[in-house]
Amino acid sequence: MSKLLPKGHKKLLNAWAFYDWANSVYNLTISSAVFPIFWGALTIVRNDQGDIVNDTVHFLGYDFNNDSLISYVTALAFLTVSIISPLLSGIADYVGNKKNFLKFFCYLGAISCIGLYWFNLEHLWFGLLCYFLALIGFWASLVFYNSYLPDIAFPEQQDAISAKGYSLGYIGSVILLIINLVMILKYDWFGFESEGVPTRLSFIMVGVWWIGFSQYTYYYLPKGNKKDVLTKAVVFNGFKELKMIWKALQNDIKLRRYLSAFFVYSMAVQTIMLIATYFGIEELDWGEQNATTGLIISILLIQLVAVLGAYLTSKASSKFGNIQTLIVINFIWIGICVYAYTITTPSEFYVTAAIVGLVMGGIQALSRSTYSKLLPEDAVDTASYFSFYDVSEKIGIVIGMFSYGIIAQVTGSVRYSILFLILFFVVGLVLLFRVPRTE
What we know:
By secondary structure, the protein is an all-alpha fold. 77% of the residues lie in helices and 3% in strands. The chain is built from 17 helices and 4 strands. The strands form 2 sheets. It has a two-stranded antiparallel sheet with strand order 1-2. Strands 3-4 form a two-stranded antiparallel ribbon. A hairpin with a 2-residue loop joins β3 (56-59) and β4 (62-65). The longest helix is centred in the middle third of the chain and has 31 residues, at 155-185. The chain is globular.
């Protein structure tokens, strides 16, 4: 039985924010750190000198470059999310049991993470299905999680409790990643013969952590505020809202041009964030250094520096303006891509990771706040505008990941994919310069 608390109650707010602590371990361990390393170890054959001999994976009767295959599955999962998100948004606003929807996608994602323990090349379809469903479970659960915010917090409380959720998510995910890192690197301490089993166990730990800690959230969250009977019109309400925003953008040149620029450069940003570890696995000469340690340290470095990047970007935007700051950040991203194309050593990768962290945190925070500032002053339904923003971002990820996968498949190297992403930043820059400048 859940415990009913009044709107704005401290325990209720903390319980809601605690779901970030529960689910953010997926984003760091599965999306960014351990799983990409595991996938590389599973699908890459190296000789005694450490050079790649074979990185081809046979799946569904076809041969794929290993990076291409995982990028296609990722893109397909994000495409699925971008299609079902408007449906789920419409349902979330009306049904009286949205906690059950939140639980369903939480458990789908967490159980799929646990399923990755049995990932092997003999049953590749099962492993990729678990990866696919874990991604959908994570992102779909966020639709219902976010929709709870106005139900449990008053407007003056929402910024603070939302920030607290992000902070809890960062702390929790880093704690579990460090535990996993120790377990993998010091496997003999725990009685394992190699790092293979503890690597797989980290997937189980993500699922158990996600399900276990989310129970505190479920205990206090209300079942849902039922507003209406769920009908066909309600289910497709999310798509109607997206269509409404699309029409509104035709009469708002400034917002339309900014959103076009964001759509293009965000493709590259999100793709780089998703493929960074895969690049580090295949393109660097780690020598005697443990690649797993180096790559996870790089991910942690990005996470830490991103906080500083968001702060510095906020200061810069207040002094020089949002659009001007975004233009400079896009130029920096182009420089990162050019430099990344040339790197071969771990130390160069660490430098790249540090710079990526600075501009990653900045561009994400500033892009969303810029969009918020450009919304029409008389806009009543801001949630619909942000739904449009989120769907745009996910479709951008789909295009970016498919582009990356195709280039890696054709060229056989992810290095050329990194170089190709410069094109997205250049187009994004051109579109940013076209956004009208007004005070």
